[in-house]
Amino acid sequence: MPLFEATGLSKTFGIVEVLKDININVRAGEVHAIIGENGAGKSTLMKIIAGNQPPTRGEMRIDGETVTFSGPVDAEHRGIVLVHQEILLAPDLTVAQNIYLGRELHKGVFIDDRAMNEGAAKAVRGLGSDIDPNTIVSRLSIAQRQLVQIARVLLVPHRIVIFDEPTASLTPHETDALLKVIRQIRAKGVGVLYISHRLPEVKEIADRVTVLRDGRLVASHDVSELQSADMARLMVGRDVAKLYPDRHAAEARETVLEVEHLNVPGYAQDASFQLKKGEILGFAGLVGAGRTELMEGMVGLRTSRGVVRHLGKPVNFKDVHASLKAGIVYLSEDRKGKGLLLTKDLIVNLTLASLGKFIGALQIDRKRESAALDKAIRDFDIRTGRKDILAGQLSGGNQQKLLLAKMMLLDPSIVIIDEPTRGIDIGNKEQIYKFIAKLAEEGRSIIVVSSEMPELIGICDRILVMRSGRIVGEVTGDHMNENEIVVLATGATKEEAA
Amino acid sequence: MANVATETAKAPKTSKDWDMAAIAPFIALALLLALGYFANPNFMTSANLLNVVTRSSFIAVIALGATYVITSGGLDLSVGAMLAFVASLMILFLNSGTVADPALALVAGMALAIAIGAACGLANGLITTIGRIEPFIATLGTMGIYRGLTTWLSQGGAITVRDRDILALYRPVYSGSFVGVPVPIIVIFVTAAIAAFVLYRTRYGRHVTAVGSNEDVARYSGISINRVRTVTYVIQGLCVAVAVLLYVPRLGSTSATTGSFWELQAITAVVVGGTALRGGVGRIWGTICGAFILEIVGNIMLLSNFVSEYLIGAIQGAIIIIAMLVQRSLMRR
Ligand SMILES: Nc1ncnc2c1ncn2[C@@H]1O[C@H](COP(=O)(O)OP(=O)(O)OP(=O)(O)O)[C@@H](O)[C@H]1O
Ligand SMILES: [Mg+2]
Predict the structure, then answer these.
(1) I want to staple B87 with a disulfide (CB 3.0 to 4.6 A). Which of A140, A181, A352, B254 is the partner?
(2) A164 C-alpha to center of ligand 2: Å?
């Protein structure tokens, strides 16, 4: 008998049915991966199983006994815990305080900070990280926050653990550590539900794979029966033969952006590089190498010193308004925290950065705005049942497309994209790469910051590698391979890296 | 976001919560009117209702400004003191005889009040944005300053308009009416219409909501947070000045205690109207409704005999707490 079983689960939001008649189960001691496109309904299904939302129809059973959950705490009492796709931590509390939030350890009437710090340190160390438990969470990178969130959930006694895209922002090192932890809990007889868009990783960790498409369960197989390519086909409903678009070798072109000795205090030192018209330039490096901060310093989101020349003219953007005006846009890696207003509707988000283009005589022209949304939905293939939902209700991948659409309304000549495909399914990745290539073909220049080396190698003309705040090298042509990049990014020798 | 009430009527949003939060204050107002009707037959007379609405005009107009400040994520505690300060300076100017002609003096005095109101608001805005001081503390400080200056100007007593001609000329601005509607009521609706237009229909209004909703997103979208926030305080100052223009002709006098606790009433009106205190959602017509509710509660208490009118403050305090509870439960579902 499976540990957990659901039959005939359906979920309707308003008039849109996002889950249709799903039958799924989890056995003790297995990792059951759920894959599917952005918006397929994976997170919704997991939230229902973990008691965050009630199903519209259907039944759930634990050990054969029918259950209904009044809320997530109720599900936790039954041993079902969920690591959310979104990061839900109190930003002003420390790592340890977050990990023990709501279940603080006591010594008499006093909170036992020492025990909590030790427990937290142990928990994050188990995940292959050395985050200090006294750090305030708002100082952590997204990857580090993700680890804290996982540590927090694993502290609850559990029989079923659900991971909703736990590795989306993790580097290979942290991913490996997490997979090790998952193998450990599986060995203890815990049932694991695991969502990821990284198919090789699914292949590596899962025992069984279930594929959702448009809210329907389309296939469920033992992992040995499937290759990555099969998974991709089942998810998208067509062959995804070639992920990366063809690109023509670059001819000699004019330089549009020149950065000389740029310092972003505390994050990046002495960065110099050039960007050419129509070029796609990659920035590789480990988490914490200062890539994001360098970009933010360049466009005026952080204080920086040094020279930035745009089309030959020195520009030192004192705020992001100035760089946007110059036609340079930066798309943050933190699309929920810095990219979109999650509690506002799609239109408000789409036009926020370019409202000037939507002013009629005096007021905002709502018709023009809604036409722009229609066009964005078409151009960027944003999948949403209805147009009047809030941005926070879009699936992760569709949020990224909305953010792209928002910034492209500014018609920029230089586009800086930080982690363009984080949390994005393979079909959408292909689309986004195609889109980036098209932007370059139109004569725009692109900078891609990414932790996924295959994607940098697949789409970039040239890759700069950063380590501890410095640009330590450049790889082009035949040298664009993962090994060369890892050597530069870690400072290891070739033998060590191989 | 624009015209939430009207727009949601034709296309229901995904979550019913939004609709309810927008409509709730109006339902409360209707219930209150019904209560008043049964409590005392004199309540539902047009004379009484016009009187009540007229008296709510000060708080209503001030609360419009507060709606902007709060929507952008700020707070202004200095508005009551600011009103007393601006009114005192205006009267002192009228009394100074700088301009001989009464009509011209009055116009100059009004222009001066507007300018001082804007300047006081600008000061609040710059202290919180450029000075980076929490709005609560910054405006607590300026509240003390404006109040203290007023006390000093009046030497602890009252400041009264001395020129009878000016006063005669000015009186109708509060007590007069236009096609049967008292001037203050017209002022309420005209300022509210302007405020609603700017907040819901213009780029600046959109920016105010965006800044209050998520400062980082606004900044990364190229919006100047400091400018947007500072301007909300200037708008608040202008609203206070408009309230001064209505207040001075009413009694022709101010004192050190003029406008005491009005900041609390204004904030109450805003919150009762459905604007989120954490920012990001502003409801102009809700605010007006909130100001009416506050005044009507007082009026019903005066007219009926079951509760002592000395308890008005306590009842208003209870209202803000109930409003927050209702808002919260509507958001949760
Ligand atoms: N509260 C809600 N109201 C309306 N629609 C919703 C709500 N929550 C989710 N949806 C819709 O349900 C669908 C499924 O969303 P879900 O987040 O489950 O997708 P997902 O498979 O997890 O995608 P991703 O890979 O991008 O995380 C989407 O179309 C989404 O827009
Ligand atoms: Mg999801």
Answers:
(1) B254
(2) 7
Beta-bridge mates of residue A264? A268
Of the two residues A386 and B26, the one the predictor is more confident about is B26
Among A295, A325, A363, most B C-beta atoms within 10 A, so best to mutate, is A363
Q: Which of B6, B200, B206, B217 to substitute to test the interface with A, most A CBs within 10 Å? A: B217
**What is the reported pLDDT for A316?**
87
Quick check: B1 and A344 CB within 8 A? yes
pLDDT tens per residue, range A163-197: 999 988 887 777 888 999 999 999 999 999 999 98
Buried b (16+ CB within 10 A) or exposed e, A161-200: bbbbbbbbbbbeebbebbbebbeebbeeebbbbbbbbbbe
Q: Which residues in B lie closer than 8 A to residue A363 (C-beta atoms)? A: 197, 201-202
Q: What's at A56, amino acid-wise? A: T
Q: What residues of chain A lie within 8 A of the CB of B218, using their CB?
A: 352
Most confident of A68-72, A474-478, B189-193, B293-297: B189-193
**Under an 8 A CB cutoff, do A352 and B216 touch?**
no
Which position has the token pair 């036992």?
A112
**Sheet strands side by side (includes A216-222):** A80-83, A160-164, A191-195, A31-36, A208-213, A216-222
Which residue puts its alpha carbon closest to atom 16 of ligand 1? A41
Task: Find the helix packing angle between B262-272 and B284-303, rounded to 10°.
Answer: 120
Q: Which two three-digit tokens encode residue A196?
A: 């990821």
> Would you say residue A330 has pLDDT above 60?
yes
Nearest CA to ligand 1 atom 31: A394
Structure tokens at A442: 């139109």
Residue nearest to atom 4 of ligand 1 (CA): A13
- Chain B touched by A374 (CB under 8 Å): no
pLDDT in tens, B230-243: 999 999 999 999 99
**What per-residue confidence (pLDDT) applies to B333?**
46
Residues of A in contact with B11 (CB under 8 A): 388
Beta bridge partners of A313: A310
Q: What's this model's pTM, rounded to 2 decimal places?
A: 0.83
Instruction: Give A105's pLDDT tier (boundaries 50, 70, 90).
Output: confident
Q: Residue A337, class by beta-carbon neighbours within 10 Å (0-12 exposed, 13-18 middle, 19+ buried)?
A: middle
| Whether the CB of A42 sits within 6 Å of ligand 1 | yes
Mean pLDDT (chain B, rounded): 90
Token pair, residue B262, equals 């009005």
B276: confidence class by pLDDT, cuts 50, 70, 90: confident
Ligand 1 contact, A85 CB (< 6 A):
yes
> How high is the pLDDT of residue A451?
84
Give the ranges where A190-338 is alpha helix by DSSP (H): 199-205, 228-236, 291-298, 320-325
Cβ distance B201 to A364 less than 8 Å, yes or no, reads yes
Higher pLDDT, A220 or A428: A220
- Find which of B221, B223, B224, B333 to mutate to test the A interface (most A CBs within 10 Å of its CB): B221
Closest CA to A436 of A454, A455, A451, A453: A455
Is ligand 1 within 6 A of the CB of residue A123? no
User: Which of A380-394, B77-91, B144-158, B222-236 shows the lowest per-residue confidence on average (mean pLDDT)?
Assistant: A380-394
**Does residue A339 sit at the B interface (CB-CB below 8 Å)?**
yes
DSSP secondary structure letters along A64-122: TEEE--SSHHHHHHTTEEEE-SS----TTSBHHHHHTTTS--EETTEE-HHHHHHHHHH
